[in-house]
Write a structure and sequence with these properties.
- This protein is an alpha/beta fold and about 650 residues long.
- Helix content is about 55%, strand content about 10%.
- The chain has helices spanning about 1-55, 70-90, 95-120, 125-135, 140, 145-165, 175-195, 195-205, 205-210, 215-220, 225-235, 245-255, 255-260, 295-305, 320-330, 340-345, 355-360, 380-385, 410-420, 445-450, 460-490, 510-515, 550-555, 565-570, 575-580, 590-600, 605-610, 620, 630-635; strands at about 270-280, 305-310, 365-370, 390, 400, 405, 425-430, 495-500, 525-535, 540, 545.
- The strands form two sheets. Strands 1, 2, 3, 4, 7, 8, 9, 10 and 11 form a nine-stranded mixed beta sheet that branches.
- The radius of gyration is 31 Å and the shape is globular.
- It starts with a helix and ends with a helix.
Length: about 650
């Protein structure tokens, strides 16, 4: 039996050896997969680091990063590029094409952030991706992209496509290596996106110089990719914690008399209301070397005979929807730290505000804007804020342009055409485009008028050219204000006009060379506003903020506000009640109230009861509101 067994094993030995040899080879091959994958990770990192050093301005000439953190900054900024390139490699199997495609994506990221930093003083932030994903901005943004920036991105993309097509098979990793890379990339990508503890420790944003209150300084210390990641981890989501109802009730009780004194409708026919949000409209006389006689003759004439003043807005050189949101909602964006684009981050459901308050009183509400309705997500957001109609660029047909955008004269024509002489009262919200940047180039202007614009001698060629282009369009805005006001004053129907600027223009070089008369920086400068009533009103001057403006407007028009705007109307005269710190930060309990407003819960349930004017306040309710202090006259008297 033993002899038979031994004979059988001897006979089977060649077959067993033949089977075992491929298995050993397979095990040896499998054992090399992790090393091969690690090798590709190292290759991707070694190529990403110099690419980041070349593309990111933090590491370029003239940059001043923290020397001890230079290598750390290079590595942390390279990680997202490595993850992207390895992900493309795992999917496509093409090495060079994946690396070039990731480089093109990083170049586009750097280009967008650099342009935004130059024009707005802010780098690319997480909210920008939500904004860009809605589209509608390409026609505007292409004016800012330099030819060499576009050539770099396009060149990298073309090279990537050629590499994907021509790359030899022998350079491609095997299926097992690609599978392992896919797992690594998925784990790294998800944990990086969610800000897992190991990544937060490795990036160490707060100790490396992260300053959420100053994104421009943060990006100069951290680099573009790292700054984006840390902002995403720390501030990507607006504060949606339920408001503290107890603190809101406490605030309401403390200011019950202010509610009781709030202005009510004056009775009679409701006026049509026209609001013009004029692009980059500001007073050039705030600049050193520019006199009041050189600009805005119509605005100065009308302001002297109407309610007017300085308007503090929550943005500079761009970000129009920040001012626009505050104006239409009555909510200060300071109540929502980290929110950059409210039309994407806050207005995701119907929200109370000026237009809804007017619609409840029978107004037809319309928005007129000669630009793409998708830009800034206006179409959806303004509908949720109460706009019943939206006339956008398509409704302007072949309207004339002045420079790069539709002329303000065409906007005035559209506003006048929309105003009816009968029917329900109207609210028209017109948003201009003509004076929008960039100001380096503005084609099709009248050369004689352009050359006749007086400029301070202190400006260099670039500063003079950009300021002259801006002043040309500003003069057109002022001229159209005069034309619109003349037509509205001649109407038989009562009509109220609110005209204001959304922010200062992005004239960074000009502002740096000239400076401002008050010695403050450009971000501290207000824009002007005026409210003109064709029924006649006493002139007055009042400094206010864009989130207080709807309350100011309704009071001037004699239209009854809702409870929230009534409170703002009353307390705006007692700045310590709303802004106790003396800056833009609202009183903490009012912040809770503003959050309720955004949730459309302010007038519901127990709050409606708390807002009811007590019987004991009857005398106060009949009392007139305190007079608005004419600060300019008071200063002159003293």
């Amino acid at each position: 039996m033993a002899i038979l067994l031994q004979s059988a094993l001897s006979s089977a030995e060649p077959f067993m050896r033949a089977f075992a040899e491929p298995a050993r080879r397979r095990w040896r091959a499998a054992a090399t997969v992790p090393f091969a994958a690690a090798g590709w990770i190292v290759v991707a990192l070694l190529l990403a680091v110099p690419a980041v050093a070349w593309l990111d301005p933090l590491f370029g000439a003239g940059a001043d990063p923290i020397p001890a953190g230079l290598v750390h900054a290079l590595l942390t900024n390279a990680v997202p590029m490595v993850v992207l390139s390895l992900g493309l490699l795992a999917v496509s199997g093409r090495v060079l094409g994946s690396l070039l495609a990731a480089g093109a994506a990083y170049a586009a990221l750097v280009t967008a952030s650099t342009i935004k930093l130059e024009q707005l003083g802010l780098p690319l932030l997480p909210a920008d991706f939500g904004f860009l994903s809605w589209g509608g901005g390409g026609a505007l943004f292409r004016h800012y992209v330099a030819a060499e920036q576009l050539a770099l991105i396009a060149g990298l993309l073309v090279a990537a496509l050629l590499a994907f097509w021509l790359e030899p098979r022998r350079l491609r990793p095997g299926a097992a290596v690609r599978g392992l890379l896919a797992v690594v990339v998925a784990c790294a990508g998800v944990t990086l996106w969610r800000g897992a503890a190991p990544w937060r420790s490795a990036y160490d944003g707060w100790n490396a110089g992260f300053e959420p209150w100053s994104p421009a300084d943060s990006v100069r210390r951290l680099g573009i990719a790292t700054n984006l990641l840390v902002f995403h981890w720390e501030l990507v989501r607006p504060d949606r914690q339920p408001p503290d109802h107890g603190r809101v009730l406490e605030f309401i009780a403390e200011h019950a008399q202010a509610f009781a004194r709030s202005a009510t409708a004056t009775g009679g026919e409701l006026p049509d209301i026209v609001v013009v949000q004029s692009e980059s409209f500001f007073d050039p006389a705030r600049l050193n070397g520019v006199t009041a006689e050189q600009s805005l003759p119509n605005f100065r004439r009308l302001a002297a005979a109407s309610a007017a003043g300085d308007l503090r807005v929550p943005t500079f050189a761009g970000g129009t929807i920040r001012t626009e949101f505050e104006m239409l909602s009555g909510v200060p964006l300071a109540a929502f730290p980290g929110v950059e684009y409210p039309y994407f981050e806050l207005v995701d459901a119907p929200m109370p505000g000026l237009m809804r308050t007017l619609a409840e009183q029978g107004y037809r509400t319309s928005v007129i804007h000669p630009n793409d309705a998708a830009f800034w997500n206006r179409r959806d957001a303004l509908s949720r804020l109460g706009a019943q109609r939206f006339l956008a660029l398509a409704d302007f047909g072949h309207a004339p342009k002045s420079g790069l955008f539709v002329a303000d004269s065409a906007l005035t024509d559209k506003v006048l055409a929309e105003l009816a002489d009968d029917g329900p009262p109207q609210f028209l919200f017109a948003i201009s485009m003509e004076a929008h940047g960039p100001y380096e180039v503005s084609p099709g202007l009248d050369e004689d008028l352009l050359a006749a614009i007086p400029l301070p001698e202190a400006l260099d060629e670039y500063g003079a050219r950009t300021l002259r282009h801006f002043l040309y369009h500003l003069a057109n805005a002022d001229q159209e204000l005069g034309r619109l006001a003349q037509h509205l004053q001649q109407r038989q129907r009562p009509t109220v006009l609110l005209f204001y600027g959304d922010h200062l223009p992005g004239l960074h070089s000009t502002f740096a060379q000239l400076g401002f008369v008050d010695g403050q920086g450009p971000r501290e400068q207000p824009v002007p506003y005026l409210i003109l009533d064709n029924r006649g009103s006493a002139p007055r001057w009042e400094e206010t903020r864009s989130w207080m403006l709807p309350a100011v407007l309704l009071e001037a028009a004699g239209v009854e506000p809702d409870a929230y705007l009534a409170l703002v109307a009353a307390l705006r005269r007692d700045r310590a009640a709303l802004l106790p710190a003396g800056d833009d930060r609202p009183e903490p309990r009012f912040v809770e109230l503003a959050r309720l407003r955004v949730r459309d819960e302010f007038d519901l349930g127990q709050f409606a009861t708390a807002l009811a004017a007590p019987e004991s306040a009857g005398a106060a309710a009949a009392s007139p509101l305190p007079e608005v202090v004419d600060e300019a006259s008071e200063a002159a008297a003293n």
